[in-house]
Amino acid sequence: MISIWEKETFFAPQDVVIVGSGFVGLWSAYHIMKKHPRARVTILDRGLIPTGASTRNAGFACFGSLSELVADAAAMGTDKMLSILEMRFKGLERIQKVFPKKEIDFELCGGYELYDANANAGLLADQMAYINALIKPITRLKKTFQPDDSAIRRFGFGGTRFIVRNNLEGALHSGKLVRALLRLVQSMGAQVLTGIGVTGFDTVNGRIELQLDKAIALTASSILLCTNAFTKELAPELDIVPARGQVLLTSPVAGLPVTGTFHAEEGYYYFRNLGSRILLGGARHKAFASEETMDMSTSETIQAHLQAYLDEVILPGYRGMYTIDHRWSGIMAMGSEKSPIVRELSPGVYCAVRMSGMGVALAPVVSREIARSLL
Ligand SMILES: Cc1cc2nc3c(=O)[nH]c(=O)nc-3n(C[C@H](O)[C@H](O)[C@H](O)COP(=O)(O)OP(=O)(O)OC[C@H]3O[C@@H](n4cnc5c(N)ncnc54)[C@H](O)[C@@H]3O)c2cc1C
Q1: I need a surface site. Which of 154, 255, 306, 361 has the fewest CB within 10 A?
Q2: CB of 329 within 8 A of CB of 247?
Q3: Is there a single domain that holds both residue 166 and residue 294?
């Protein structure tokens, strides 16, 4: 049993309980506290630290590569593609407004996309002109994407025919961003409790009673699910499919010429430099079915694809000169559509979930939208 002191402080009735302390949960707390500084807001997370995607991603501050935007326009239509792109663009602006670059290692290093021998020069030029014209009102640039084939030699890539550059993209330190957000929302008055899992909830007399995996009672006027890939455990009706993303990190590579963030194959491969090391992730398209999992281990199949890509494309001239120092995975949320689910599910129960692998940039914007409708 909890004590009266605990009941009247940590577990007192709340205005809002946010479930999940990843980017979306933390940005939501930020927007709620900014608008309602006296609100009683608690963020619960079942991990000791946020344990989903936010601290386990690749740290790209990106709004989409050329081939990704072309594929999105074809799959969901230009209006939806542009609306997501605008959210991501604004999200990246917001991150830079709220946090000093140094605090989160934000670097506007530029983004590049690699095209292999199968790419067609004419088609690529048409796609660039088409997407540049479409997105000009958002990026305010005539040519967001530009050819930069000289980068192939500069970076020493193998199996690469063309490179498209985008000056607006950058990289950041995801751990530092989560930590900075945690400190910020706590300084604004939100309470963060970790190691507490939510297993369900009921509405009783107009208030939400949370069921927790600890012998604690907690109620709130509203709850907000920011549980991304794990949301089906609490709201099984939502169209969410978990998608594991795997990453590897090399040891320092002496004389590494690669700097920036890079995409290939519609964003299914992504890599960047982290100092003089290469952080590489992706290859999920090589084994979609086995990666539809919430298991945060790594698999030999995907890691072998990543290693082959590293050897053949990124560092062909450096074989035997580095080792793989780290491997990890995180879980993203996908679905039949790429747009996030941001809405009230039932009276007092809200969600901001399904970030489709774009949450670094989307979180500051979707959280603002849900915070507005919540209070
Ligand atoms: C390998 C990888 C690379 C990526 N690269 C990029 C990128 O370059 N750019 C980009 O924009 N995005 C990228 N992403 C995606 C991005 O990281 C996610 O979209 C974003 O972190 C999602 O944030 P979130 O807050 O919605 O979810 P999460 O960060 O997953 O947070 C959900 C939280 O909810 C908690 N939780 C779940 N269920 C419960 C429960 N029942 N009770 C209590 N707590 C619960 C979890 O512990 C977790 O902390 C990548 C993801 C991965 C895995």
Answers
A1: 255
A2: yes
A3: yes
Range list of β-strands (E), 54-100: 60-61
Of 54, 224, 232, 238, best ligand 1 pocket probe by most atoms within 8 Å of the beta carbon: 54
Report the CATH number that the domain containing residue 115 is assigned in CATH: 3.30.9.10
Residue 375: per-residue pLDDT: 80
The C-alpha atoms of residue 358 and residue 15 are separated, in whole angstroms, by 29
Å from CA of 121 to ligand 1 middle: 37
Q: Which atom of ligand 1 is nearest to the CA of 357?
A: 15
**Range of the structural domain that residue 167 is part of:** 102-171+240-334
With the CA atoms of 96, 101, 104 and 109 taken in that order, what torsion angle do they form, in degrees rounded to the nearest 10?
A: 90
Which ranges of the chain have pLDDT less than 70?
Answer: none
**Ligand 1, atom 20, residue with closest C-alpha:** 359
Pair (186, 323) in one structural domain: no
Buried b (16+ CB within 10 A) or exposed e, 296-333: eebbeebbebbeebbeebbbeebeeebeeeebbbbbbb
Give which of 326, 121, 368, 334 is closest to 239, Cα–Cα: 334
Residues 256 and 196 in one domain: no
Q: How far apart are CA 326 and CA 225, in angstroms?
A: 31
**What's the pLDDT at 71?**
94
For the CA of 26, the nearest atom of ligand 1: 25
pLDDT, one tens digit per residue, over 238-277 is 999 999 999 999 999 999 999 999 999 989 999 999 999 9
Residue 198 and residue 320 in one domain: no
Cα of 202 from ligand 1 centre, angstroms: 25
Q: Which residues contact 252 (CB under 8 A, 6 or more apart)?
A: 275, 276, 277, 322
Residues facing residue 270 across a β-bridge? 263, 281
| Site residues for ligand 1, CB cut-off 6 Å | 19-25, 44-47, 50-54, 56-58, 60, 62, 197-198, 226-230, 233-234, 245, 247, 281, 330, 332, 355, 357-361, 363
